[in-house]
C-alpha cells in the first residue's frame, strides 16, 4: 500500500506515529499537506486508499446515504492494519494514534474497533462511524480511548442519521471530546488543526 511519511525511516525511531487517513475521492496528498501543522515528536504516515474513484481514491464504495457493505468496510480496514504492521516493524515508535477526515474518520474508527486499546488517541474530522453489526455484538469496547471529534455546523455531507449514530457510538465506546465550528462546511480548517495539535500534546506527547 503506497503512502507518504513526514520523515525518513532512519529518523522515526522513538517518535509518536500518527496514521492519517484521507477522505473519499482524494488521496494521501491531502493528508501530506497537513504534516507541517503537527507538533514536533510526531511522525505522520498517510496511506493511500486502494479503491479507484475517477482518478482519485477511496477506502471502500460509498453511496450518498453512507450505506456500506459491511464486508467491504472490514476488508478495507484489515488492509490498512496489515500496512500498519509493516510500518511498525520499521520503528520502534513510542505510540500510535489515528487521524481521519470524512471517510477517513470512518476508517480510523474501524481500526480502533478491530484493535481496541492499541491506539493512544483518535482524531476524526467531518466524518462518521459506520454501522457494522458484525462488530457491534462485541461492543462497547473494553477500553475508552481518547477521541476528538470535530465538525462544522455547515457540513451537509454527513446526513443527520449518520451523525446521530456517530454521536451515540462515540459516547458509548470512547472518551469523547467534541468540537463544533459555526458555519464551517466539509473541510479541514486551521482552527481544527490547532485543536488537533492541543489534543496530541495532551494525550500523546505529555503522556510520554
UniProtKB/TrEMBL annotation:
Q: Which InterPro entries match?
A: AB_hydrolase_fold, LYPA1-2/EST-like, PLipase/COase/thioEstase
Which Pfam families does the entry mention? Answer: Abhydrolase_2 (PF02230)
Note whether Hydrolase occurs among the keywords.
yes
Keyword Repeat on entry: no
Keywords assigned by UniProt?
Hydrolase
- The domain of life is Bacteria
Q: Which residues form the Phospholipase/carboxylesterase/thioesterase domain?
A: 14-203
- Which protein family is named in the record? Belongs to the AB hydrolase superfamily. AB hydrolase 2 family.
Fetch the PANTHER family from UniProt: LYSOPHOSPHOLIPASE-LIKE PROTEIN 1, LYSOPHOSPHOLIPASE-RELATED
Protein name, as recorded: Phospholipase/carboxylesterase/thioesterase domain-containing protein
List the lineage, top down: Bacteria, Bacillati, Actinomycetota, Actinomycetes, Micrococcales
Amino acid at each position: 500500500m503506497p503512502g507518504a511519511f513526514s520523515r525518513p525511516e532512519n529518523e522515526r525511531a522513538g517518535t509518536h506515529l500518527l496514521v492519517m487517513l484521507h477522505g473519499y475521492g482524494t488521496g494521501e496528498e491531502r493528508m501530506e499537506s497537513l504534516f507541517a501543522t503537527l507538533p514536533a515528536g510526531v511522525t505522520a504516515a498517510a496511506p493511500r486508499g486502494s479503491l479507484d474513484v475517477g482518478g482519485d481514491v477511496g477506502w471502500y464504495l460509498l453511496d450518498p446515504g453512507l450505506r456500506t457493505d459491511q464486508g467491504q468496510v472490514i476488508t478495507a480496514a484489515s488492509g490498512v492494519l496489515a500496512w500498519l504492521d509493516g510500518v511498525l516493524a520499521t520503528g520502534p515508535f513510542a505510540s500510535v494514534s489515528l487521524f481521519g477526515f470524512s471517510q477517513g474518520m470512518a476508517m480510523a474508527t474501524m481500526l480502533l474497533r478491530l484493535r481496541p486499546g492499541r491506539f493512544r488517541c483518535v482524531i476524526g474530522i467531518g466524518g462518521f462511524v459506520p454501522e457494522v453489526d458484525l462488530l457491534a455484538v462485541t461492543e462497547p469496547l473494553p477500553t475508552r480511548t481518547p477521541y476528538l471529534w470535530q465538525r462544522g455546523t455547515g457540513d451537509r455531507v454527513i446526513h443527520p442519521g449518520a451523525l446521530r449514530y456517530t454521536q451515540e457510538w462515540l459516547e458509548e465506546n470512547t472518551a469523547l471530546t467534541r468540537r463544533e465550528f459555526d458555519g464551517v462546511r466539509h473541510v479541514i480548517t486551521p482552527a481544527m488543526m490547532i485543536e488537533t495539535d492541543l489534543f496530541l500534546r495532551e494525550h500523546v506527547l505529555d503522556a510520554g
